[in-house]
User: Which sequence fits this backbone?
């Protein structure tokens, strides 16, 4: 089997592109949304500020405040995915398993805001776990590897014409020098 670098690189580039078109498009579009998550409240709720940077409420008070938001469907700690404490903003974000985010003042225990948080779902779409846990390793990881190969073959295809022109120019100059030396030797 003979390796024809230009032809084979184009084939690898073409078929690799077709193979990953849909998963890579999903990664690109979801990545664009994630780039905007701090700027667009629809993706991730804007962080509010509490009255003090020194937390003084207990975990039980946090749970009780979170229970007051019916959309979050929180009745026990099992309904909470995580707590994100922001002492510098004087608040704690309570993320429910159903993707609702409740921001609670860490001084007064008042609910500052409750909104649906889409960034976690978009992140799961971005890494492929939203489709199926195996999709991360068997579709999206190979897509990343193929994109890397496409980048390499694309760079190769971009620079090869310039390298060939340079090589031809050097060869032509060398031939001219050799012919001048031959003429002067005669």
Assistant:
């Amino acid at each position: 089997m003979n390796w024809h670098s230009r032809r084979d690189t184009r084939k690898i580039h073409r078929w690799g592109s077709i193979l990953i078109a849909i998963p890579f498009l999903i990664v690109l579009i979801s990545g664009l949304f994630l780039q905007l998550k701090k700027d667009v409240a629809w993706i991730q709720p804007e962080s509010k500020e509490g009255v003090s940077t020194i937390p003084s409420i207990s975990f039980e008070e946090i749970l009780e405040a979170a229970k007051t938001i019916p959309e979050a469907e929180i009745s026990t700690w099992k309904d909470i995915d995580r707590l994100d404490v922001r002492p510098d903003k004087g608040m704690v974000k309570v993320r429910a398993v159903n993707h609702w985010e409740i921001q609670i003042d860490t001084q007064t225990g008042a609910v500052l805001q409750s909104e649906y948080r889409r960034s976690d779902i978009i992140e799961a779409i971005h890494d492929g776990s939203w489709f199926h846990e195996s999709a991360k390793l068997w579709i999206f990881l190979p897509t990343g590897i193929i994109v890397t190969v496409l980048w390499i073959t694309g760079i190769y295809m971009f620079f090869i014409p310039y390298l060939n022109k340079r090589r031809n120019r050097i060869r032509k100059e060398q031939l001219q020098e050799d012919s001048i030396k031959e003429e002067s030797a005669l």
